[in-house]
Each structure stands twice: as structure tokens, then as C-alpha cells.
Amino acid sequence: MAGSNEVNVNESKRVVPLNTWVLISNFKLAYNLLRRSDGTFNRDLAEYLDRKVPANTIPVGGVLSFDHVDRSTGLLNRVYLRAPESGGQAAAAAPWGFKELEKPLSCTSVVPVIVFFHGGSFTHSSANSAIYDTLCRRLVTFCGATVVSVNYRRSPEHRYPCAYDDGWAALKWVTSRPWLHSGTENNSKVHVYLAGDSSGGNICHHVAVRAAEAGVEVLGNILLQPMFGGQKRTESEARFDGKYFVTVRDRDWYWRAYLPEGEDRDHPACNPFGPRGRSLDDLVGKFPRSLVVVPGLDLVQDWQLAYVEGLRKSGLDAKLLYLKEATIGFFFLPNNDHFYTLMEEIKSFVSPRCDSLQKA
Amino acid sequence: MGPSSTSHAGTGKLIPPFPPQTQLDGLLAGAGYKVRSSDLHLVAQRLESLESAMVSSPSHVVSHLASDTVHYNPADLVSWVDSLLSELTHSHHHPSNPSSSSSSSSTSPPSRPLPVDLDDLFSVPSDAINWVQSEMPLSQQPPPPPPPPQQLTVVTTMEEDSGIRLVHALMTCAELVQRGDLHLAGALVDEMTALLTSINTECGIGKVAGYFIDALSRRIVGAGSVPAPPHETEILYHHFYETSPYLKFAHFTANQAILEAFEGYDCVHVIDFSLMHGLQWPALIQALALRPGGPPLLRLTGIGPPSPDGRDTLREIGLGLAEVARSVNVRFAFRGVAASRLEDVKPWMLQVNPNEALAVNSIMQLHKLLGPDPTPIESVLSWIRGLNPKIVTLVEQEVNHNQTGFLDRFTEALYYYSTVFDSLEAACQIQPDKALAEMYLQMEICNIVCYEGAARVERHEPLAKWRDRFNRAGFRPLHLGSNAFKQASMLLMLFSTEGYSVEENEGCLRLGWHSRPLIAASAWQASPGPLPLPLPMGADDYWNDD
Q: What family is it from (chain B) (predicted)?
């Protein structure tokens, strides 16, 4: 492992608040226990240790949530909505605990719907993990969006392409819900964006490709510290290995657990613009514009920056938000500037004004 | 790191009790972890120590932490990290005895070193291993949790117009009933019955709507439901037991906890608050038979309703269990206590011996004691506490069906039972077993919807409320560990349908369907110290012989 342990601990403690350090270090150590060297994963213990929260149709902090299971796929989605203003007509019409799901989100304005894919390197966490439930609630609050969090199948039990299949199924489900429509009569549709952190970001890309190829409109992609990689070792991997909670070895483990057996990290799922990837110039006009957020202390950043390059080389619109002193997971707790910068960026990214500008 | 932050660590002193509005780090609480702000530095330091210890331990020792160690209450980070640290230290001091501190009674195999993978060898020479000085863990008392937001209903999206109309109608009807407008409510029942013909009654709300419409109409007419004779109830219970994992989960989890609590005792006594067919006990008897060091003497006291027509059903069940015990060489004694209501049971009837380890087991019974004032629950909890049990195992429905407002209760029940029925549908296709299981649930629905007052016994309340009650009655939680969790997960795999899930929540386990928790299992032990406040006036009668 690069660097002595003590040096690494000092480093990471310097750049994040103490409670963030405790949270992410706890995950790191627990995850170390769960990954086995033979490539299997201690799922039982992982589920036991994961802190989960139920959905709640009673608004808490102005956000209510409920779970929906798609019977045909068995896929669970957790939907987060802004609660109707208390005392308003909408609130009076909905009896306690019961959510009116017939009418669109709005007939007068556009309400963005963000399909969110949680992180966990394809292996950890669920839509009902506390950290992600909280994050989705914050997205609703800060960005005024409706969020649908997808409980995709995880590796190593379910390898590529299961997560992408589940993402695609969720996107189709979301875009076919009349009650997720918004906008005035001429423009009433589901205004959908894809967002995700870590493996969730990777899923966004691949689902967006599928959507573009199938002619399903996605208004934007938000990739938050997305998980990409490749066979060759990059400079950021060498420089940051083990320094800020993440090691190259654990990254390798997760790719080995997700990719088909025998494959290497130049598989296009991992390295979409690599030697086995492809240019997306045939999808210009169909593939959504992207917001890619790169933490400056993430060892994967060279791959994330290469991804942005790849999008641009294909003629696609990609905005890079590079947060110099941010580590992975900076967005879990709202106790740092990067968190608020991120929320502002996402908010303006999904705001209708940007959308119409793009079209003009 | 910060030497100044270690001033209170390692003293082993109990932290004095702090006020209920304790200073938990709010952001970590939102992530599911309970850490006091003042403990942040301490936890950080412990995490560092743990990491060092993991880095410098041989890989088979570290993997033992995952495979053989029993973990408890991961929300309490301080104690979780501490327990791992002491496991590692223990392994360092006794390298030939890796699994000795596991408190599980199941025989876990001694951990073997994993196949050597050159990539995974930590290249630290053995003489550089850090001996971790394990500090005394902080007080194990977790701070009382802030009241959770009311976790209420799960909404299933209605795909069909008729389905939505039916749900609207059900709510409206319930509201009319609450308002006392029975005439209009009755008219609505007719409409709903008609609507039923045009929706999918195979799943979701359509499935249960029929039962709720029926229950509403009985309430309106004032018919109530005809209570089933006890032996019929037992047959329905049996089918419910077979066709879904709920009761099996309850029994498995409770038995695991009881087994662990009985470790080291030669005379043990289990009191079962509702014996039924005694389905829970053969597994415990067999587990005790396999106990290293041999089985204890087991006494079982089963409480149940008096049998009609001169039979003694309790005794018959007891004889059957005695046969099981005999076949595995466990010394066993059974006693039946016949009582139509749990509150009629007096502690002296149970003949608890002060020298034995006592377990009190209540599977979906205590909620029956939450009836109207004077509600018997507190005095019953009080006499249970007075028996000084080693463990009280509690399994209850994870829902609030005890709200005073009829509409609230009705709504809650509608969504709860539609989830339960959904899960049954997926788990069991065999008729008539499924229909009989559904009838068992239908009895519960009827009781919740049709009755008020003393007749309404299905007064389910969620775990959060039971925690309060048990804490006030002088109990503290006995955390169910990752072993019990693992067993529960394995049990679920036997039900070949995906959708069931087990969750750990502050030392308790909850079984649910698609992330909606449906039943909760918890364990309790008597808090040390003086017994709780004296009983309210009039309850002294419970202690006097009749």
C-alpha cells in the first residue's frame, strides 16, 4: 500500500471535517472486512451493517417518500417528492398518509425528475441506505426536483450488464408515469435527468447511451465522482493511492466483481472511451448534455477527466466541475463548501432556463 | 493524532447519565450512526487504531472478524469499533484460538487461513506487529434515541382507474364511519362491492379490498365478527406459519437469542405466552441438545386458552414436546397454564425458581394488553420484570394499529395488510394452504376494523413504542447480533421468492416485504439497579392470592 498508514491518516484528516472523516473511515474499514480475497463478498454482514431507513409518506423536512415495486422486474424504486404546501388545496385534498398519484407534478411549470443511481462501487448500498435516502431528500430540497432512486442489482452476485439493465428499466418506468409529467399543455412530459455517484455515475453514462440509441429523451446527465477505469495505471492513481480513503487495490477488486469474469479494465463498461470503447459522435443531438463533478483528491480523477475529454471529442456538451480539495464522499454531509457548490450547480443544471437555452 | 482528546478515554469510568436531549452529532445521525459530538475524536482515534491493527494482522485473523465474529448494533459506532479492536487484540495474544470470543452458541468451525493470494500478503515482518493496547470501552449505554419520524404507510401506485376509485371509496367510507354517518357509509359499501368486480383482485390493494369492505360492512351493521373457536384459530395459525416466513422468522430469532442468553446455565426455564401448537420449541430443544458441554434441564411453561369439552390441549402439546426432548436426551418438564386472557395470568402460577435462568417469550401477544384504561400492560411488564428474567424475547407487528382515530387506523391497516397479502401471494401458491393463511389475517383485519374497547385486541404498535415501554418498565435492550441476522437471511432463502428482507435496526431485527418492515423482533434483559417505580394503585391485587 502506497505511503505509510500514519501519513495517510494525517492527510485525510486534514482535508475533511471530523464527522465526515469518521463516516467515510468507518465505511472504508467495514468494506475492507466485507471484500474477500477470492472475489466473493460477505453480503449478509454487509446488509447487517448497512444503516437503512424506511420510506415515509409523512413529509419530513418538506419531503415525502414512498417505495414502488415494478412487478414485472421486481425492481424497487424509491420516489421522493416535495410535500404540498400545508394548508393549500393540494394538502387538503390528500388524506393523511395517502398520496394522490393521478395528476401530473405540475400543469404550470416544469418540475425536473432526477433518476438517481446510488454509489457503492456496484457492490455496496441500496436505495434505502440512510446516506442515500438523506442525499436524495437534500436533492429535492435544494434543487426543487422530484427524485427517483433506483435499487439496482449489485455485484458480485449480479455482474455487468445487470446494473445497466435495471437502470434502463427504471428510466422507462419513470418516463411512462403520467404523474411524473410537468409543464404546460404543449410541453407536458417527464422532464428527466440521470444522476449518480461513483458506480451510479457510470450507470448514468451507459443508460444514457441506451436511451439515445432508442430515441428516449434524457435532458441531462449528472455524474458525481463517476467510477471509470482502465488497464493502464494513471498518475492520479499513483499519487493518491491510499491517501484519501480509497486504494487502487480496492478499485481493482470492484471492477473484477462487476465485469464479466476474465475481462480486464479496458472493457467498455469500465473504459467507455478506451481502446475498446467507441466515439459517440453518431449520438450528437440525442445524448444528453453532461455535468461531471470530479473531486480533486479522488484517485480515479484521471479517468473521470478522460471521460469528459471523450465526450467533448465526440462533439457532446460536457461541463466539468473540478473541486480541488474535495475527497470522495464530500456530498454525504452538508458540512463543507463543496457540498453547497454542488447543489447550486445541480440546481442550475436542471433548471428549465438552461433547458430552453440549450434548445435555442 | 490529538493527545488532548484522550483525556477521558481508557479510564473505564461510567459516563454519568446525560439529559434526554443529548448531543448526538446530527449529521452522523442522519447517516444512521449514533455518536455523541463529544466522542467524535475518540471514535476517530479508535478507527485509526482499528485500521492499524487490521493492516498489521495476518489476513486470516482479519477475515475472522468478518466470518466468525458476531457484530452487534452497528449504529453505536464506538462500541462496534471497540468490539472489533478487542477481537483483534485477543487474536494477537492467543493466535491459536481465533474464535473464542464469539458469543454465538452455534458451533462455528475454527477459522482456517484463507488460500494465500500473493496479492494479499501484507508484507509486514512479524516482529513489527503493533500490540494494540485495548482501552476499556466507553459506557455501553447508548443515549435514548430521538423520537423517529412517524414511519407510516407505503403507497402502492395504482395502475388502474378502478383501483384508485376503490381506494378513494374505502377511505371515504372509513371517514363516514368515523363521523358516524352510517347510512351513507352503507351505501358506499354497495358501490365498492360493485367496483370489486372490475379490478384485479390478484394482488396489491385489490387483494385485500374485499376483506376491508366486508369488515366495514360488519361494523356498520353492528354485526361484529363471529369469533372463531380457539382450535380453529390454531389451525389457521398453523397454515399462516407454514406459508410465510413471518412466524418462522419470529421463532428462529427468538430461539437464537434465548440460546445465547442460556449459555452457562444448567437449569433453564422458558415461559411461552402463547403455546399454540408449540411450533417454536422443538428447534430450541434440539439446539440445547447440541450445546457444547451438554444440555441443561429445560422447563417450559406454556400459556394458552382453556380447552373446551374436557380436553387438555396444553398438556397434549406438552407431551409431544416431552417426546422430542426425550429423543435427544434433554431433561424436560412441561407445565400448562390455562388462561383466556394474558392479563388473567398471575406470576405465582408460573412457579419460577430463583435458581434457574428464565426466558420470557412473547410472539405477537403483548399488544393484546394495550386495551382501554385501565390498560394492563404496565402491570404485566412489571411482574415480568419482577421475575428477573435473563431475557425477554418480543416479536410484534411493526405498525400502529392502535391509534384512537378510526380513519387513521383503517388507513394504516389497509396498507399494512395489502403488503402482507402481497408477500403471501408471492411466497405461496398452494391452495388451500394460502386461503387458510389469508383467513388468519382476515381475523386480524376484522378485529381492527369492527371492534372497539376491550373486544379490540389486535392493538399493534411499532417497535419504537415498545422500546419506550420496556425502558420505562426497567428493561434494557439485548442486541440481536449478526449471527441471528445471518440465520434469518438463510431462512428467507428457503422461501424461493425475492422480496423479503431483514434489516438490523439498533439491535433489533425487522422482517419486511420490499423494504417495508412488517414484523420486528427484539430482546430485553432486566436493567440492573432497583426495580422501577411502584405499581399504580389497585395493581397490588395482582400480587395477592385470590
A: Belongs to the GRAS family. DELLA subfamily.
Which of A220, A243, A222, A338 minimizes the C-alpha distance to A300? A243
Query: Does A198 participate in catalysis according to the annotation?
Result: yes
The 3-state DSSP composition of chain B as helix, strand, coil percent (nearest 5) reads 45, 10, 40
Q: What is the DSSP string of A180-202?
A: G-BS-GGG-B--EEEEEETHHHH
Interface test with B, best of A35, A47, A48 (most B CBs within 10 A): A48
CB contact under 8 A, A51 and B486: no
**What's the DSSP call for residue B310?**
T
Cell numbers placing B445? 383485519
Residue A74: per-residue pLDDT: 82
pLDDT tens digits, one per residue of B180-197:
999 999 999 998 988 888
Going from the C-alpha of B51 to that of each of A14, B40, B130, B134, B444, the distances in angstroms are: 17, 16, 11, 13, 51
Q: What angle do CA A27, A31, A35 make, to 5 degrees?
A: 175
Buried b (16+ CB within 10 A) or exposed e, B177-189: beeeeeeebbebb
CA distance A135 to A160: 26
Pairing of strands A63-70, B267-272: unpaired
Question: With contacts defined as CB-CB under 8 Å, which chain A residues touch B119?
Answer: 37, 249
pLDDT tens column, A144-197? 999 999 999 999 999 999 999 999 999 999 999 999 999 988 889 999 999 999
Would the CB atoms of A33 and B66 count as touching at under 8 Å?
A: yes
Interface membership of A2 toward B (CB under 8 Å): no
Segments in chain B below pLDDT 70: 1-22, 92-161, 202-205, 224-231, 496, 530-546
| Alpha carbon of A244: minimum distance to chain B alpha carbons (Å) | 13
DSSP string, A332-354: SSS-SHHHHHHHHHHHHHHSHHH
Amino acid at B253: T
- The residue among A350, A360, A354 whose CA lies nearest residue A190 is A350
CA distance A166 to B322: 52
> Residues 186..245 of A with a Cβ closer than 8 Å to B: which?
none
Q: What is the mean pLDDT of chain A?
A: 91
Q: Among the listed ranges A14-18, A208-212, B92-96, B424-428, which one has the minimum average pLDDT value?
A: B92-96
Per-residue pLDDT of B409-442, as tens digits, reads: 999 999 899 889 888 887 777 777 888 888 889 9
Contact status of A60 with chain B (Cβ, < 8 Å): yes
Residue A72: which pLDDT band, with cuts at 50, 70 and 90?
confident
pLDDT of residue B142: 43
CB B514 within 8 Å of CB B427 = no
Query: Could you count the other beta carbons within 10 Å of the beta carbon of residue B484?
Result: 26
Question: Rounded distance, CA A17 to CA A14, Å?
Answer: 8
Reduced to 3 states, what is the DSSP secondary structure of residue B396?
strand
Taking CA B152 as the corner, what is the angle to CA A172 and CA B200, rounded to the nearest 5 degrees?
A: 50
Q: Which residues 106-145 on chain B approach chain A with CB closer than 8 angstroms?
A: 114-115, 117, 119-120
Q: What does the block give as the cell for A175?
A: 418516463
| pLDDT for res B22 | 64
- Do the chains contact at A48 and B482, CB–CB below 8 Å? yes
Element of type H or E holding B43: helix B40-56
Distance from CA of A346 to the nearest CA of B (A): 21
Show the cell assigned to A256: 473484477
Q: Which of A68, A210, A212 is nearest to A151 (CA)?
A: A68
pLDDT value for B476: 94
- Whole-angstrom distance, CA of residue B501 vs CA of residue B516: 9
Nearest to A56 among B152, B408, B514 (CB): B152
User: CB–CB of B262/B289 below 8 Å?
Assistant: no
Asked if B74 lies within 8 A of A99 by C-beta distance, the reply is no
pLDDT at A265 exceeding the cut of 90: yes
